[in-house]
Fold Agmatinase.
Amino acid sequence: MLTVICRRGLSSALRNYRTLSSTKRSSSISGEESELRGDGAIRRKDPLGFTIEQTYASVLSFLRRNYTRDLTNIDVAVTGIPLDLATTYRPGARFGPQAIREVSPQVANRKPYPEGIDLFADLAVVDYGDCWFDLSQPHTIPTAIETHARKIIDQNVFLLSLGGDHYSTYPLLKAHVSRHGKPLSLIQFDAHCDTWPDESSNSINHGSMFYYAVREGLIDPQTSIQIGIRTFNDDFMGVKILDAEWVHQHSVNDVAEEILNRVGNRPTYLTFDIDCLDPAFAPGTGTPVCGGLTMAQSMSILRRLGSINYVGMDIVEVSPPYDQSNITSLAAATIGYRFLCLLRNKKIIDKSFSFGNYSNYK
Ligand SMILES: [Mn+2]
């Protein structure tokens, strides 16, 4: 199937889709649309709509969105956090953002199923590029990530971050708290709770960032929840746990209901560690644990979480050197895409929703 062209609107998308599916496809594309074939990420001016692309070529950006740092009239900025210094077992998550971008055009190539919505006709999403930090000065990296995130958030733009190891969520949480106040509620899909104690200051540790976050009041454990856990901790710090066994013994409706009840309408940060998935569905990750969620379970649960008042989201721990046939990066790109569908519906259906401004929910 060929890529759909859509400059603006559903009718245009349908018209061009039919055109491309016909035998006259090349002669039917004219004018400006013809000139915008390929490399739309750097050539397209309008942040809305699609331009024609080959899914296997051209400039990489997440879901073929404009690659820019101009956030004028933008709803969502996607950024990469190419960090893996905190990894305790298998490194490689620094390659995660680029690998997710690489597979993402295939995900964006069709309307989402089953909604069939024209996602990018309504939601202005750009790829902001990656966070830059100096690997030779590791103690400066947390601040570099926080500062990078704040530049985006402070422009009232929703931030979707692609990791990178899970430590990056800690400076990201700090950035979101600086904008929205604390504490935030946390929804965490993960094999690991990441609340293991670490009393040393300034550790860069991807197993303790939520220990810090609870202790510092960045997140409220009483309104936070972790899904897919299958590693032990003597103290989960009051965060509600739906472990992998619980998820497997219940329906996706049950899981979603527990999550919705836990966070209510509070400002909520969503972190999706790809190792929440079973290694069969996400082999390319730093610390895989058997017995995890399927991709089907995860997508079904996420689809039911559209009413939540999200302030930010990240997808972390994709380690491409350990991946097979892009299974893991495809899962990450799909989760990001599905999440953007939720935000699109917020914008279109829930008129009270304002990206980056959640004062009406406090
Ligand atoms: Mn994990």
